[in-house]
Amino acid sequence: MTDVVEMLRAELGERVDTSPAARAAARTDRSGQRSAGDPIAVVHATDVSDVQATMRIASATGTPVVPRGAGTGLAGGANSDVGEISLSLAGMTRIHEIAPDDLLAVVEPGILNADLNTALAEHGVWWAPDPASRAISTVGGNIATGAGGLLCAKYGVVRDAVLGVDVVLADGELVRFGHRTVKGVTGLDLTALMIGSEGTLGVIVGATLKLRRLPTGIVHSIAAVFSDVRAAAAGTAAVTAAGLSPAIMELMDATSLRAVHALLDLPAPAAGSVQVTAQTDGPDAAEEARRIGEILASAGASVEVSDDPDRAEELLVIRRSMHPAMESLGTALIEDVSVPRSAMPDMFDAIARIEREHGLVIPVVAHAGDGNLHPNFICDGPDIPPEVWRAADEMFRVALALGGTLTGEHGVGVLKAHWLREELGDRQWELQRGIKTLFDPQNILNPGKVFV
Ligand SMILES: Cc1cc2nc3c(=O)[nH]c(=O)nc-3n(C[C@H](O)[C@H](O)[C@H](O)COP(=O)(O)OP(=O)(O)OC[C@H]3O[C@@H](n4cnc5c(N)ncnc54)[C@H](O)[C@@H]3O)c2cc1C
Asked: Does 77 sit in the ligand 1 pocket, CB within 6 Å?
């Protein structure tokens, strides 16, 4: 391993970091998972050629490489282990091109989502994927995980917002997938294959992003308080079934809401209160907000509709404080099941039953506009106890039985690798594993993640 570090140093000099602090930090992301030991080095790439040099040395020596953006992932995908190289893309932050008339931008992978959008706003455009972590996560990480966010029910997820990617393959060769055009169906869609590939197929070193014009009109907010989570879930499903497209529609159950109010020093909500927060934008924002308010009220909520931007921000702060609020309750295993919107009430019922039967606390927040639920299994101590894994296992099975999926946006990483085959089935798992082998015959790209 000393040889590998020496080879890296000879090509990359000070960009090879073997300090104990950097190596220890690379063992973990925000999932609470930690690898068994420190990687041999962290390479801080500043250029495509740094990534190519790293991969050439890695393939010549059979050394595993774990690509890493900002390390905000919630599946353990960026965690690197003993004998591995952590390859950080966080220093590659250049914007090569913004073309508002063509609605595209060409960027490096390490730029933070929020920084990109600040730069794009000057041109009247934006990149729509908006994970709640947008201020701290990279565009490359967003692409590699196939991230979603609050606005994606109306404006789409990463998969809908990438035209092409530049990828350094396992042997160090640079290839370009995709195109700069709105249409393009030449050959297989390898851009789509890279989205959500979690560093297992190649290193994303550039991306051609599909932009949107900034929405016009005054954002309207709807805050709807229910006394029952099933009624709240049914209410949100009724909103989308009515053909309405709120830009945001989030649901926080009673435990989540209480924890966030405590964290933010807000007055405690009434016992058992569940909150749905929705926002509308565009030219019909006011009328859509009125209709959404009516539907949620007839589902049993007390409803407030507002066009005050401060109130809109206040409601978003409450929603975005979910993650720190869960950290204040203990260790949280943050799950990410997604179900058809009409199945959300049944999914909430199942989680409540699992919570009762396993004697656990499982606060849930949901991107209710698209049926994506984040149950947070709270436990003591740094490790997830077997009882929690048993409860999570039961929850995954319910989600699959309801026509859903294990992960809507966080990815498989190490956390869900154990269940991947069950969702895909043997034949599809073998096909996917075959694709992985084609891209990475030595299995040096993020081994031990996704396909185990
Ligand atoms: C407070 C909080 C809120 C969050 N909210 C959301 C949310 O609303 N929606 C959502 O989808 N996620 C959310 N996340 C999870 C996380 O922010 C996203 O998964 C994000 O896309 C990860 O980006 P990153 O730069 O931190 O990637 P990392 O965590 O560094 O890496 C994630 C995965 O991508 C791979 N990877 C990273 N960069 C590259 C690259 N350039 N090439 C190849 N592979 C690469 C890594 O190997 C790893 O498998 C949240 C996390 C936190 C902490």
From this structure: yes
Q: Return the CATH architecture of domain 2-88.
A: 2-Layer Sandwich (3.30)
- Residue 73 alpha carbon, nearest atom of ligand 1: 29
The string of pLDDT tens digits covering residues 87-120 is 999 999 999 999 999 999 999 999 999 999 999 9
| Domain locations in the chain as residue ranges | 2-88, 95-213, 220-401
| Number of neighbouring beta carbons within 10 Å of residue 188 | 9
Q: How far apart are CA 85 and CA 172, in angstroms?
A: 14
Separation of alpha carbons 388 and 362, rounded Å = 10
73 alpha carbon – ligand 1 mean position (Å): 4
323 Cβ below 6 A of ligand 1: yes
| Contact call for residues 395 and 371 (beta carbons, < 8 A) | no
Q: Which atom of ligand 1 is nearest to the CA of 90?
A: 25
Ligand 1 contact via 89 beta carbon (within 6 Å): yes
Specify the CATH number of the domain 95-213: 3.30.465.10
Instruction: Say yes or no: CB of residue 64 within 6 Å of ligand 1.
Output: no
pLDDT tens for 27-77 read 999 998 999 999 999 999 999 999 999 999 999 999 999 999 999 999 999
